[in-house]
Amino acid sequence: MRIVSPPIRRTVRDLLFCAGLLVASTASAQEEPPSIPLPVFEFHSGFWLNLHHTLYRQARLQRSSAAGANAVTTTAGINNLSPAEARAWNSALAFYTKTYADKDLTVSLEMILIKNQLGDFETCEDLTGVKKKTCDAGLPAQLTQTLESAAPVYRAHLWTDHDRSNRRWISAVAPLVRRNGLDVSHRLAEIYQTPWPRERIRVDVTSFASSTGAYTTLDPLRVTVSATDARNQGAEALEVLFHEASHGIADVVQDAIFRECRQRDKPIPRDLWHALLFYTTGEVIRPLASANASSSPASSAAEVSSSGPSSATSSSGYVPYAVREGLYKRGWENYLRILTQYWQPYLDGRVDFSDAVAHMVSAL
Ligand SMILES: [Zn+2]
Question: Whole-model pTM?
Fold first, then answer.
């Protein structure tokens, strides 16, 4: 798997300093891919980020559990700790509980910066730069010390399983990405009237990835996805990846919705843009899921570029994520009606982008 350390943007670098984090030069260790790189996405299974998410998850479980005292037993495979290992792990958990458990992985700038930094340093054996100068990750001292002391425990008891399931998930989704990735990205860019990112999008695959099973952070655009979450398996994995990536090209449609609302003096609808992302990805992926099932790459490409009407796609048997997870039944019922009635005609090529957005907002 190719490991790339993308340049940290100036703004992010400044923010790291503001957050009290010192940025060191990124790790330069690289491995050449054994095969042709995939299009669109670049998958990583990194030790430090997986450890960070594992500690974060267990700290939250520990905090919310009724017993509250023994989170070590909540993760399979970490029951047989030696006394020294238990001390190191529990001390790491105590630090995460105190420092990070209340912070949201998806919105806390501090958590986002830590995640990105741990991703960039995934090939490093340590984070202090003791063994290799370029591996000084510049993270807060207590966090570095915590991760370093928990690392041997995680490596001995959990990492092998986590890495194996991450790589298994990547292997399962790779053929779907290779077959459909470019076509889907072109189609979504066309729909959102926004160029698709030129660089491949980094996807960090982890055992745990927030309560939603996957999340996206911007500047730089990066996706984190759980390999073990039941919502991310099979053909659905492709939809999850492209839904997440769509967060990076949704500004135009989001701005258009807001502009129409202001012009009509209407309150900006909460999450309509997000429901639109779910709906759109589901409709773009739906015909592919059927084509993939019948192993027909040629027909899948044709269906993407023609973006056939929804009546044709509904026979595929594929149930889009938002329907499957009941999102439209939890306050988005009206959005589904509006999207079906006014956005679908745009996806079918029967109305233009501006008219579709105007119709949706006027129907609110
Ligand atoms: Zn989303």
Answer: 0.83
